[in-house]
Every structure is written in structure tokens, then in C-alpha cells.
Specification:
two-stranded antiparallel sheet; Integrase_recombinase_N; DNA integration; Site-specific integrase; GCC-box Binding Domain; 10% strand
Length: 385
């Protein structure tokens, strides 16, 4: 029979109190019994405390929890706002990443949690904050309020990372961010693959001097920032290859060029032969002769800015009756087309600049879905006889 008084574990034990809360204890390396300094709202929280204590023992840095609790009481309070801002300042981040992190901190995390001491941020506090975050819709987009699922996942992941560093720094005993799956999000926007005719019409609807933006994104799977950062020296003289070496982001309307976030982002992408003539024509008619001449220019210090591109692309998409199409969908288009052409997972990773197989396998799955379409057409052929 099981233990009626509590749950035995590989390390420590947990029992449910009459109040409904959970109490955890274990026998330490000193042979004495040690209770958790507080009871827990959930069994998982108590289990996490036991796991953390065992980790301290395994690392040979264990001290009695009562001594640690006393030391924390005597130590000056460390507010999350102060710690998080210092954490951000000390990280070696890309400018765009730093800006995104700072925005999430200042708008979504610190207003609710910033004035709390790190030790006061419990799993219950995190759950309450996260529930309020989930209940807050994102800004309207195209007349539709989105749930902000991606925003929520990113905010939670950032808080969890910061508090994980606080654990490593010895400021808190365990990370209170324990909501399963909170840092993950499912794709809401389905991958939409345009028929070849619609893709041609979309490109034709763009201004002549930036028409190639659509073709490179759709057929080479380039990200928006990668396309806008291309220079003459990033294209093979015969137009058959594009060399991705940098990207551009816009921070407070200013273009910031930087190398890709990962080594996988630095890559050479072969241009499909049928659009090579368009590449060469663009180089001849719209690009300066210098090797550093940008392929696509605008008013923002010579760079075609993302807002101009977004506005122009939206108008072109509406003209072909695809109002929901986003520019990033073109990268998905290139990925699915490559998968349909038989690219392996490794080949897709190389072409798209992915660091893990997961995303590339998603595109292969989308391409495999075409089998149902093929089967339906086979039946239609038979019915027409």
C-alpha cells in the first residue's frame, strides 16, 4: 500500500496537510531532517524544492535551508526591477534583441512584478501575473484583436531566464517560473502557399524597383531583414547565388545592420534558375556599381525601410485578393516549395538558416500535405471520363 501520510520520493518526502497545502522535507548530508521554510500551494512546487535541494547536495554546495533562509533575511532586498535591468545591461545581445527585451520588461513584466523582492516572487505570484498577461489582448491588427500568444510566451521565457540567473547567483533557492508550456506557442497563422500564377501577379503588383524583394523572399526563403540588407557584393556576378552575411533591423526608425544571430544564418543560397534573369535585370537597372551598393534603397539612410515595404506589400497583396498575406509568409512559401522539390531536413536547415531540425520538419510536413490534393485530383480525373 502507498504511504498515507505522504509521498516518498527518491530524495525527500512530501505530504499534504489538512489545509490542502503541501509540506516537504528530507534528510540532509548532516543526518538531520530539514523542512522546507514554507508550505507549498501545489505538489509540483514542493517537488521542485526537493529537486533543488538535491542539486545543491550533488554539487557539494549544500548548507542547511534554515541557515540560508536566515542569511536571506539579513541580506538587503533585491528588487526584480533593479536585478532585471542590470541583467539586461550585462548581456551581450544584438541591438534589436536588447530593444525587444527591454520593451517586454518595461511594459509587461516590471509594472506588475518590478517592485517585488526576488524572494517574494513565488510560483503563485508568477501564475497570477501570467494569468493577467494572457487575459490582455495584443494590439489590434487589421481590425482583428489577436490573443498575443507569442508575446505571452516570449515574456514568460524572459522572466524565467532572468530568475534562472538569480538562482545561479544564489539570490533565490529555486526558479518560481514553473508553468508547463508557458514559453511555447502554437502557430496561429497557417502557412499559405501561393500558386505560381498568384506569386507572379504579386511580384508584378510591386513597384518595379523593389519587385525582386518578393521573388528573393519567396524563392530563396530569405527573411525580410536579410533581403533589405543585401548589397551588390552579396550576389554572384551571374545571379545564381545570394550570400547571406548580415541583416538589418530598425530601432526607433534607424537601420541597424548586424550579423545573423546564429552561425547557421550565414549561408549561401542558390537562386532558382527561372528568376536569375530578374536578378540580373535588377542589378543592371536599379543597383549602383559599387560593391557595397544596396540592392533596395529608400529614404531611411539609403535603406528601404520595413514600414515602406509593409505598406507597399499590403497594397500588392490586396490587389491579388490576398489581404491576409504577410511578407514573412513568402519565406514560408520558399521553404515549402523547397520541401516539395525533395529537399531533406538537413538541406532545408542549410537553405533557410535554421539551427534545429524542428522548423524544417514542419515545412516538410506542410509539403507532405499536398498528397491529399494529388489524390483528390486523381479521383477527379477518373470521374471526368
Amino acid at each position: 500500500m502507498g504511504n498515507k501520510r505522504g509521498t516518498r520520493r527518491g530524495f525527500g518526502a512530501i505530504r499534504k496537510l489538512p489545509s490542502g497545502r503541501y509540506q516537504a522535507h528530507y534528510v540532509g548530508p548532516d543526518g538531520a531532517k530539514h523542512l522546507a521554510p514554507a508550505t507549498f500551494h501545489a505538489h509540483d512546487d514542493a517537488a521542485a524544492w526537493c529537486a533543488h535541494e538535491r542539486r545543491l547536495v550533488d554539487l557539494d554546495v549544500w548548507t542547511p535551508p534554515a541557515e540560508r533562509a536566515k542569511a536571506q533575511e539579513e541580506a538587503p532586498a533585491v528588487l526584480l526591477a533593479d536585478y532585471a535591468r542590470t541583467w539586461l545591461d550585462e548581456r551581450n545581445l544584438k541591438p534589436s534583441t536588447r530593444t525587444a527585451y527591454r520593451s517586454k520588461l518595461e511594459t509587461r513584466i516590471l509594472p506588475e512584478l518590478g517592485d517585488l523582492d526576488l524572494t517574494a516572487i513565488t510560483p503563485a505570484v508568477v501564475r497570477k501575473w501570467h494569468a493577467a498577461l494572457v487575459a490582455t489582448p495584443s494590439a489590434p491588427n487589421g481590425g482583428r484583436d489577436r490573443s498575443g500568444a507569442t508575446r505571452n510566451a516570449h515574456c514568460y521565457a524572459l522572466l524565467r531566464t532572468i530568475l534562472g540567473t538569480a538562482v545561479d547567483d544564489g539570490l533565490i533557492e529555486a526558479n518560481p517560473c514553473r508553468i508547463r508550456g508557458a514559453s511555447q506557442t502554437k502557430r496561429v497563422h497557417e502557412i499559405e502557399v501561393l500558386p505560381a500564377g498568384d506569386l507572379e501577379r504579386l511580384a508584378a503588383a510591386m513597384p518595379d524597383e523593389i519587385r525582386l524583394v518578393v521573388l528573393l523572399a519567396a524563392w530563396c526563403g530569405l527573411r525580410r531583414g536579410e533581403v533589405l540588407a543585401l548589397r551588390r557584393r552579396d550576389v554572384a556576378p551571374d545571379g545564381t547565388e545570394v550570400y547571406v552575411r548580415r541583416g538589418v533591423t530598425f530601432i526607433r526608425s534607424k537601420p541597424v545592420f548586424s550579423t545573423p544571430k546564429t552561425d547557421a544564418g550565414v549561408r549561401d543560397v542558390t537562386v532558382p534558375p527561372h528568376i536569375v534573369p530578374a536578378v540580373l535585370d535588377h542589378l543592371e537597372r536599379h543597383v549602383g556599381r559599387g560593391r557595397d551598393s544596396l540592392l533596395f534603397t529608400g529614404k531611411a539612410e539609403g535603406v528601404l525601410d520595413e514600414w515602406t515595404l509593409r505598406r507597399t506589400f499590403k497594397a500588392a497583396a490586396e490587389s491579388i485578393e490576398r489581404p491576409g498575406l504577410r511578407f514573412h509568409d513568402l519565406r514560408h512559401q520558399g521553404a515549402v516549395l523547397a520541401a516539395r522539390a525533395g529537399a531533406t531536413t538537413k538541406e532545408l536547415m542549410s537553405r533557410l538558416g535554421h539551427t534545429t531540425p524542428a522548423m524544417s520538419m514542419r515545412y516538410q510536413h506542410a509539403a507532405a500535405g499536398r498528397d491529399a490534393e494529388i489524390a483528390a485530383k486523381m479521383s477527379k480525373m477518373m470521374s471526368e471520363k
